[in-house]
From TrEMBL:
<keyword id="KW-0732">Signal</keyword>
<feature type="domain" description="Lipid/polyisoprenoid-binding YceI-like">
    <location>
        <begin position="17"/>
        <end position="177"/>
    </location>
</feature>
<dbReference type="InterPro" id="IPR007372">
    <property type="entry name" value="Lipid/polyisoprenoid-bd_YceI"/>
</dbReference>
<feature type="signal peptide">
    <location>
        <begin position="1"/>
        <end position="16"/>
    </location>
</feature>
<protein>
    <submittedName>
        <fullName>Polyisoprenoid-binding protein</fullName>
    </submittedName>
</protein>
<dbReference type="Pfam" id="PF04264">
    <property type="entry name" value="YceI"/>
</dbReference>
<dbReference type="InterPro" id="IPR036761">
    <property type="entry name" value="TTHA0802/YceI-like_sf"/>
</dbReference>
Amino acid sequence: MALAAVSLTVSSLAFAALKFDSKASNVVITFKQMNVPVSAKFTKFNAAIDYNPAAPEAAKASVEIDITSFDLGDPEYNKEVTKKEWFNAAQFPKANFVSSSIKPAANGTLTATGKLTIKGKTTDVSFPVSIKKEGNNQVFDGSLPIKRLTFNIGEGDWKDTSMVADDVMIKFHVVAAP
């Protein structure tokens, strides 16, 4: 009986599903077009985070992004990037990240490792995540640099990186509560 109680306590420490706050969270990307920085955001995404600060190595995270919610600030541009040459949202309406490990790192940060899938292409990624507590909420902030051509974002004439750079920075701010 005592062993069962200890086991239950340990497993409850390792698993703490948090409730994602979509209104307080955001995903922003930055890239250069003709060497000028451009920022855009995804307005619809969902994050599932299991995290307990007492057992960070047991954390799990997944994020699913609605590609059609990509917002460059102009309806015509938004329509253009959903086309086959860019995100091909008709065939690949979602992008996602699924963690395979989350480990404590320097200065109270974590290193998240997992699989990122965009436009049907999956690659292994690893990036730092900072965590802070705001009231009852846990706030996760991070940046993930990617190469757009790895995911075939920008096909045909758009493979030319002199117009749209290959380097893209994905920045996220995820707020979640117990």
